[in-house]
Amino acid sequence: MQRYFLDDQQQIKKDDWHHILTVMRMQSGDDIELCTTTGQCYLAKLSLENIPLKYEMIQPLDVVINKGKITLIQGIGKGDKNEFVVKYATQFGVDQIIFIEMKRSISKMDDQTWHKKKDRYEKIALESARLAHRNTVPTIDFLPNIKALNGDFSHAFVAYENDRKAVFLDKIEGIKNGDSIALLIGPEGGIDELEMALLKDKGFISVGLGNRILQTEVACLYGLAIIDGVLERKR
Amino acid sequence: MQRYFLDDQQQIKKDDWHHILTVMRMQSGDDIELCTTTGQCYLAKLSLENIPLKYEMIQPLDVVINKGKITLIQGIGKGDKNEFVVKYATQFGVDQIIFIEMKRSISKMDDQTWHKKKDRYEKIALESARLAHRNTVPTIDFLPNIKALNGDFSHAFVAYENDRKAVFLDKIEGIKNGDSIALLIGPEGGIDELEMALLKDKGFISVGLGNRILQTEVACLYGLAIIDGVLERKR
């Protein structure tokens, strides 16, 4: 069944009208799933006679209980790598993505550029969350450097190719339901040594994500799959 | 350091000459890593005076011991989804990819089309293995339907969205180093019930890959990351 996210006023978003009416060709009386901004989802019946589109709530749906807050801190990549990360990390269950400019980031980001990009990334996250049948949409933020990063997580990890022997699955056995977990992935050029020292000061533990070199845009998926796998088991 | 795969005659492949000479602008005496078709890798010194390019072996490299044979059986996807799977599954450590036409595959494949595609997929796998610093390149095959699938694996799993409670990490705790492990991922439209019955007859165990709906091209990455994570721990 199609799932849509409501806006703050509990209305079907204008952006979704076209999808409902023209792409899906839905009719009044058709059932859909609607999720509120707090992550509660309902079975609902559409009423399409008027604009704005209306609906009638039928019953609440069982939703997956929030298993923890998973934050991906991703070194800014070039080209469409950031879009790739938003799209697929959303499917892999991330709750927050923080793009961060790092010393070896080839693409640079200023506040003005970020303002434009953020809108686009949020749309991608919303659409990906809808298709993945998530009940929440990840938030997306930007930080100008590692110094600006608040290390306030229950567990914080950084993927570091020189630490491949620190098997990620061993390092995360201790995570519990409800913990906040951060995973930092460097940009294409890797993580500078001074940044690494700063991250360790902030409590980040370096981990290996397997014995191969992963491109930056998929390294996060390797890590998120393993975090989700462990949390699924503990649920 | 750059890594290249040698051909059956232990020569640097013609396809790599351009990369070595023009893209990387290497000089005689530069060090590279070379891997044989059997997965042994060496540090070597280039000698570029003549065509074909020559090299001198310096010393064998420690390579990751084969941890098991991981086979991805992937329902044929449309557009460039198959290329996506080859590229990234190679980075996630797959040893064999079998594309399979399934009842709900939107794109169809005949032997003639496959012949053309196979070449392209093998090139993508080779390049991805090189970048990931693997010592082997996955093989790529095609089967016309589930019936043609040989179920001869130590452990065979099929991702099935109706079985989300069968947590993958629990199901694969028993895998051991050296085992042959298969993971089947259906096409966009999912797996037909008759196909599912046939798979179970062949010994496939259905598993859930998290509590969201994953697009077919990344579902394999979720599964491969968890398999690799468990094998890394057992190595």
Automatic annotation (TrEMBL), chains A, B:
Pfam families: Methyltrans_RNA (PF04452), PUA_4 (PF20260). It is an enzyme of class 2 (transferase). Keywords: Cytoplasm, Methyltransferase, rRNA processing, S-adenosyl-L-methionine, Transferase. Coiled coil: none annotated. It catalyses: uridine(1498) in 16S rRNA + S-adenosyl-L-methionine = N(3)-methyluridine(1498) in 16S rRNA + S-adenosyl-L-homocysteine + H(+). Residues 13-47 form the Ribosomal RNA small subunit methyltransferase E PUA-like domain. It is found in: Cytoplasm. InterPro entries: Alpha/beta_knot_MTases (IPR029028), PUA-like_sf (IPR015947), RsmE (IPR006700), RsmE_MTase_dom (IPR046886), RsmE_PUA-like (IPR046887), tRNA_m1G_MTases_N (IPR029026). Specifically methylates the N3 position of the uracil ring of uridine 1498 (m3U1498) in 16S rRNA. Acts on the fully assembled 30S ribosomal subunit. Belongs to the RNA methyltransferase RsmE family. NCBIfam families: RsmE family RNA methyltransferase (TIGR00046). This is Ribosomal RNA small subunit methyltransferase E. It comes from Paracholeplasma manati.
